[in-house]
Amino acid sequence: LRVLMVVAAALVAMTALEAQPARPRPLLAAADLRPSTSLDGQWNYSIDPYRDGMGGFHGGSAGTGHRRYDDVDVSAVTAADPLALYEYDLDHSPVATLPSSWLTHDPTMRHYEGLVWYQRRFAAAPIAGMRQFLRFGAVNYSADVYLNGRKLGHHEGGFTPFAFEVTGLVRKGDNRLVVGVDSERNPASVPPLVTDWESYGGITRSVSLIETPATYVDDAWIRLGRDGRIAVDVTLDGAGAAGQAVRFAIPALGLKLDGHTDGAGRWTAHIPAPRALHRWSPDSPSLYDVTVEAGADHWRDRVGFRTVEVRGARILLNGRPIFLRGICMHEEELGSDPTRAITPAAARALLTEVKTGLHGNFVRLAHYPHSEVTTRMADEIGLLLWSEVPVYWLIAWDNPETLARARAMVAENILRDRNRASIILWSVGNETPIGDARNAFLGTLADDVRTLDPDRLVTAALLTGRKEQDGHAVMVMADPLVAKLDVMAINTYNGWYTGDALADLPKIGWQTPADKPLIFSELGADALAGFHDPATKRKFSEEFQADYYRQTLAMAAKIPNLVGMSPWILKDFRSPRRQHPVYQQGWNRKGLISETGRRKQAFDILAAWYAERAKALP
Ligand code: GCB
User: Fold this and answer.
1) Among the atoms of ligand 1, which is closest to the Cα of residue 588?
2) Ligand 1: which residue has its CA nearest to atom 4?
3) Which of these three, 305, 331, 359, is where a domain ends?
4) Which of 52, 235, 443, 554 is the S-S candidate for 506 at Cβ 3.0 to 4.6 Å?
5) Ligand 1 atom closest to 497 (CA)
6) Ligand 1 pocket test: which of 194, 196, 494 has the largest number of ligand atoms within 8 Å of its C-beta?
7) What are 9-38's pLDDT values in tens digits?
8) What positions belong to coiled-coil segments (predicted)?
């Protein structure tokens, strides 16, 4: 019996563990605002399609020269020893400027999927009493990281940050950082093998060396609660984390609060919002410098304060109903040869087109977490955001490893961006077929979101059923996942992927639970910018796309619980699935602007509709 009880207790402990989403450590919240040494810029790279350089059957023993992460100066060794054999030399391999995808390093790499080695040498030194971390903004799809020949770790998932502590591993003078980047996914991956976007393998976001005091602020979460109070949660890391004096401040408001961390290094406070606090909104995106002082560490972020909630079938921002005038975006900058390197200028150009061009107030960041450059820019410009994880189409729903990966992505995304006022919706999936395993999978993700961030709304982009009634179509929402969500979201392509005549779209009925807010998370049609066909308005013409928007918007206007939309998509984007030789040539053409920013007719239709909507609701 005793044994049974012990086993039972262990089982309970295991389930309890799994009930909590795993938290990334070190987290380094607001890492991008910490003083750091940038390791962006020139890196050497070398392809490795047979993954030879991982060291295996041939490469395992020292001296065969196959382990590309070894800390060896190949040219010095071979100069000294004419019999030494190396079949690589990263120090003399081609050079690329990072961050960027390898798709644009070299034309022969455009469709390469597999392993590429990257190496960067940098000068540094250990600093007495300080800790050092290497942080990667994102590496797509997986990364094996080595410093001076020693493995730091592995990370999977191409869109979220990760960091390794390198205190004691950084040496004085020259350091060799090697990253094996593998873009190949497998059937258990998130996203799955087949998507509708270019995979952009590579080190696509910034790499930095961050120094902190021995005890530092690993996480600080600051927001305006629905109760009107500012909530602050601080987590310290380090030997002095417990019982440490902490000071939180918002200097512009003259607000200061002192406290002490508990035995686990945590401090929580709730402060009535000062009268002078200006709430953040798209119309008035006020941000405040906030600071946390803890021992020798000075942590800071720039934070907006607002509330978001659902009441009945409405979304309320700062207590007032809002209509989300949105658009979807992939992480791809404007230009004819994008490389998925989002600079502040690239993010500003795209988001300004939404805000001033379309009169929008909302962006769906599809279909994975976008760069923190983008989410910060949305805070600054004043755009509401939907943020999602790449749980897309056909995931291995009953594979526990796949679930663990997706949960890790949810946690990494939310913990990176919980301080962004712009983000109001976390989405747990896109167009996933209903089924028990999928319902349970997405249900777990929705629960994780609520655990990590109960102050925002949970959604998912869903599909509907269809029936014919009195001679017209009725789209029916029958997804059991809706019960888990604050906001229902539907992707609709009636008239593009279906044979519905565009003129019939406004007659389509929408049967959804009436007491829940609904968003059209996608709607759209392809058009090649500059292809005109005013007479027959065939598919791929600007005229077809414009008519599609006119009729779909007329349909949308009749749905009482529709509280917003994010049509698909702002800009034409690369997709290897789209190979019509005339109209697509490797691009999904549902953009309202072309890849170089040329506006199509439909752009003006949506912009005019949004301008009218903005008069009715903010
Ligand atoms: C969808 C997907 C999106 C595709 C789009 C399309 O429903 O969510 O990723 O790119 O349709 O263009 O077909």
Assistant:
1) 12
2) 196
3) 305
4) 554
5) 13
6) 196
7) 544 444 444 688 889 999 999 999 999 999
8) none
Task: Please give the number of the atom of ligand 1 that sits closest to the Cα of 526.
Answer: 12
Q: For residue 216, give the amino acid letter.
A: Y
CA distance 583 to 207: 38
Residue with tokens 């001076």, as numbered in its chain: 148
Residues 263, 347 within the same domain: no
Whether 251 and 119 map to the same domain: the answer is no
Q: Are residues 196 and 236 in the same domain?
A: no
Q: What is the ipTM of this complex?
A: 0.99
pTM over 0.90: yes
Q: For residue 430, report the distance from its CA to the centre of ligand 1, in Å.
A: 9
In a domain, 21, yes or no: no
CATH of the domain at 51: 2.60.120.260
Domain assignment present for 483: yes
Angle between helices 542-556 and 601-616 (to 10 degrees): 20
Residue 269 shares a structural domain with residue 375: no
Residue 509 in domain: yes
**Ligand 1, atom 10: nearest CA belongs to which residue?**
196
Closest-lying ligand 1 atom to the alpha carbon of residue 590: 12
Among candidate residues 317, 318, 286, the one with its CA nearest the CA of residue 302: 286
At 174-196, the pLDDT tens digits run: 999 999 999 999 999 999 999 99
Strands (E) across 8-114 are located at 36-38, 41-47, 95-98, 100-101
Pocket of ligand 1 (CB under 6 A): 196, 367, 430-431, 491, 522, 568, 588, 590
Of 271, 305, 339, the domain-final residue: 305
53 φ/ψ angles, rounded to the nearest 5 degrees: -70, -5
